[in-house]
Amino acid sequence: MNVNVPPHAVRHTETSRVDLLLIAEMVAPGSRVLDIGCGDGELLRLLAEGRGVDARGIELSQAGVNSCVAQGLAVIQGDADTDLVYYPDLAFDYAILSQTIQATYSPRHVLEQLLRIGKHVIVSFPNFGHWNVRARLLFGGKMPRTDNLPDRWYETPNIHLCTIKDFRDLCQDVGAKVDKVVALNAYGRKLGVSLPNFAQNLFGEQAVFVLSR
């Protein structure tokens, strides 16, 4: 798999989510893609218009589904924790879960299902091991709030907080092959690919993993 396909038709003005731009670059043109937790369809639109993929989505919220359908996107209402089991093995070239795994009730089960239904899996998530999160918790004594994690602890959708190191361990537990890892700093810039794992965990505010079996 070529995960460095240049984003010929994907422009930074089309989305404010840097991880979505990066994910769009990683998807090969013409692929069959399932975006789980697709929200208002921002990534699906990028993929359909910029990469020419067969893009489909699952979204839990009715408002998100309505927004997607209004844009002509192929999205159904569904829950990542319970509904992925109904998809056949290797039904998609890419199964994508962006900024959602930390909000699922059973992250391991969801990841195993993604690896079953997708030839390649792309997962992005906020890194709770980032130095700023650690510092705010250590010196402030309260759950941190950052630009990437703006919600107060009792309002956040995140229920299973993890670090880049934690997610690497989960990948090993489920037998997933890590094909590529990109960590992004607080400004959305990629950290050096040669950066050691501990440094990615310390300085990466969010991460994008590309996985396969």
Notes on the protein architecture:
The chain is globular. Helix 1 packs parallel to helix 2. It has helices at 18-26, 42-50, 62-70, 80-83, 107-117, 131-140, 164-173, 197-203, and strands spanning 32-36, 54-59, 74-77, 92-98, 118-126, 177-184, 206-212. It has one domain: Rossmann fold. It is of the alpha/beta class. It has a seven-stranded mixed β-sheet, sandwiched between helices. Helix 5 (107-117) links the parallel strand 4 and strand 5 (118-126). The relative contact order is 0.15. Residues 1-14 have low confidence and may be disordered. It is built from eight helices and seven strands.
- What would the CATH topology be? Rossmann fold
Average pLDDT: 90
CATH class placement? Alpha Beta
Order of helices and strands: HEHEHEHEHEHHEHE
User: What's the arrangement of strands in the largest beta sheet?
Assistant: 3-2-1-4-5-7-6
N→C terminal distance? 13 Å
Shape: globular
How much beta, percentage-wise? 15-25%
Which residues form runs of ≥5 with pLDDT under 50?
1-14
Q: What value does the Rg take, in angstroms? A: 16 Å
Total number of helices: 8
The total domain count is 1
What share of the residues lie within helices? 25-40%
Number of strands: 7
CATH superfamily: Vaccinia Virus protein VP39
Largest sheet: 7 strands, mixed
